[in-house]
C-alpha cells in the first residue's frame, strides 16, 4: 500500500496520524480510499466541479511533482504527498 | 585582477552541439534594432490607451463620471470595471497549469468598489494620441471615501486593522494559493490574513533540547521590483468575425489568451495572442495588466488600441515582490550536525492574496538534511501593489534568513561555513522539511566546487574587508510544452516552439534539435509561435522553458528522424529496419553504397510522400532542483557606510548547460539582481502608502560601474529525467547574494545587518550601535 503523508491542516481528520497506508494504483484511487478511511479528507483535496485536485494542490509521488494529477500512477510502495503548488518566476 | 576561468564541468557525457556557444539566431535583429517589441506595433487606425490610477492607497469608490473625458475631441472610448462582468471570488484553476482567482485578477486590472493601492487602475481611455488620452484621463471625476491604509504586515495583522477585503476568507488548508471570498452566510470578523499554514517533520522540540548550540534571529526584507527595462504593453484589435488579436510583451502568451478568455467571457479559439520580443520579465510578465483594458477599449472604440505603461506606472502598479519578515531558529550538536530548525515566514502579498510564501517555505531548509523541522507560512494583504513573481519567488528572502543564521551558527561552532554545509548538505533521498524525499540533486558537488575554487582558497587582507558565503535552493518547474519541426528542401529546419523567449531559449531549443538530427545549429531556424501556430505551452517561468520545451523539441526532432529513415528506405526500396540514422546521415546497415545526407533526403521529401514535419506536445515531470553557492568579498567605507563588492564568484549546478554562455549570463544576471536587492533596492512608502521613489533616478539599481566581473562556475550534475540532463538555471542565482553579502559585511565589521537593503545609512547605524567596532579596525 502507498504511504500518504497528511498535510498538517488535515491532521484532525486523521486523528493526528501524519502518515497513513492507503490502497490505490492512481492518485484518484488514493484520494477516494483515503476518504473512506478518514471521511472529509477528499473535500480538502478534490474539486468535484472540475473533477480534479483543488486549485493550488500539487501531488508529489515518490519525490516528483506530478503533471498528471488524479491520473498519476501510484506504486505499491509509493510515497504520496499533497503540497501547495509552487509558482516560478 | 581575477583570473577568469569560465566553468568547471563534472558531467562526463559529451555532445556535438549541446554544450557549444553558437551566436544566437535573434542576435543580429536585437543589436541592430530590427527586433519587434510590444510597443513597436503600429496598425492602421491605432488608438492610444491611458489608465487613470488611484491617488489613494485605500479608498471606496463612490462614483465615477467619465462624461467630460468622452466629450473631448479625439477620445473614442472610456472603460471602467462596470464594462465587464464581475467574476465570482472562487479560486479558479485554468487546468493548464495556471492558478488565479479571477475576481482578484479582474479587480486588479480595473478596480471595483474599492481602490487598494496608490496606482490602482480605475478607468481606461482610448484616444488618437497618447497625450490626448492622458488629458482625457485627467478629466474623469472620481469621488472617493478615503480609508486608512495598512502599509505593512504589522499594521495589517493588528487587532483593529482596517480591512482591505471585507469578505476575505482566511485559508488554512493544502490549497495555499491566492485565497478567495468566504460564503455569504459566514459573518465572521474580517481579516487581512489570507492564509496561514505549517509543516512539521520529526520532533522539533526534542531536536532543540538535544542541541548544544542554538541560534535565533529575525530578518526583514523590503519589497523590490523586478526592474525589467521594457514596461508592460499590450495591443488589442477586434477582427470582423468577432475574434480578438492581441500583441503582448509576456512570459506566457497562452496564459494571456486563457486569462482574456475568462475575463472577457469568450472562447480561447476566438483569441489569438502574438508574443513580441520581451525586454525582461523575471516572473512579473506572467500575468496581465494592459491587455484586458486594451481589449475592452478596442471593442468600444471599434479600433485597435495600444496600452503601454510608463516607468512610474510599472513601479506603482505592477510587480513587485513581497516585503517579508522571517524568524529562524537553528539547533546543532557541538560537532556541527544540524538537529532542529524552525522558521516563521510572513510575506506581504500586496492588495490581493497570493504571496510567494509557499516558495519560501519550500526552499528555506532545502539545502540541508535536518531531522526535526517546523515551518509556518503567513500570507497577508496590505495596501500596496499586488506582489508578482520575481525570480525564484519567495526563496531569496527565506535564504537571507536561513543562510545568515547558518553563518551565526558556524561562528558559534568555530566551523568553516562550507565545511558546515558539506556536513549537513541534502542529498538524493534526504527527507525535506515539506515531506517529500529529495530527488537527484547536486548540492554536495556544488559546495565542493565552491570550496575548491581559487576565490575561496585565496587570502583577503585589509581593514574593513570581509568574505561571506551563502547557498540557495530552487526546485525548478515544468509544465505542458509544444514544438513543431518542419524540414525545408534545402536541408534546414524551421523550429516553431511555444515558449516565450526571455533569455535566449530559442538557441537552446535549436541546439537540442540540431543535436538529435546531427545538423548544424545554424541550419535550424527557431521561432516562437503564437497561440494559433503551435500547441499550448505553459509560461516561460520556474526556470522550466529549456527543460520542458527542450523535451518537446527533442521529441519533435526524433519524429523527424523517424520520417527521414522511412523516406530513405523508400528511395532505396529497402526495409526501414535496415536503415539507420547516424550523425545527420541516412545509411543502410549492411550496404555501404546506400548513403544519403539529411539535405539529400530533405530535397526529395515531396516526391517520397510529402513534407516532413515532426511535432510533439509534452508535459514532462522530473524538473531537477538545483543549488547555488556564492562567495563574495566586500569592503566597507567606514566614513560613508558604502559597501563595495571586491570579488564575486557564483557556483551553480545546472544539470547540463545547453549553451554555457547564456547559462553564465543567467547566473551573472541573477547575482546582480541579488546584489541590488541586498544593498540598494527598496520600495520606499510614506505612512499613507505612497511610493516615493517610483523612478530609476530614485529607485537605485546597480549598474556596471557598481560591480566587478561576476565569476561563474558551472557545475554539471546531469538531471537523469531530461535527455540532455538539463536543470533550470535562471532563478536560483538570485537566492544566495543577500545572505552572502550580509555575511561578508559581518566578516568585515563584526556586526550583523538583518534588514534589507543594507544601505550605507543602515551600515553606519549598525557600526555606531556596535560601539568601538570601527575603531578596533
Write the layout of secondary structure elements.
The complex is a heterodimer of chains A (89) and B (777).
Chain A: E1 2-5, E2 19-22, H1 27-37, H2 41-45, E3 46-47, E4 52-53, E5 57-61, E6 64-65, E7 79-84
Parallel strand pairs in A: 1-7
Antiparallel strand pairs in A: 1-2, 3-4, 5-6, 5-7
Chain B: H1 27-32, E1 47-53, E2 59-65, H2 67-71, E3 75-80, E4 91-93, E5 99-101, H3 102-109, E6 114-115, E7 121-127, H4 130-139, E8 141-146, H5 153-156, E9 168-169, E10 180-181, E11 193-201, H6 204-209, E12 213-221, E13 233-238, E14 244-248, H7 253-264, E15 271-275, H8 290-301, E16 305-308, H9 311-317, E17 324-332, E18 338-350, H10 357-363, E19 372-381, H11 395-413, H12 417-424, H13 443-452, H14 454-457, E20 465-474, E21 481-487, E22 493-497, H15 505-517, E23 524-528, H16 545-572, E24 579-582, E25 585-588, E26 595-597, H17 598-603, E27 613-618, E28 626-636, E29 643-653, H18 660-679, E30 710-715, H19 737-749, H20 760-769, H21 773-776
Helix pairs in contact in B: 10-11, 11-19, 12-13, 15-16, 18-19
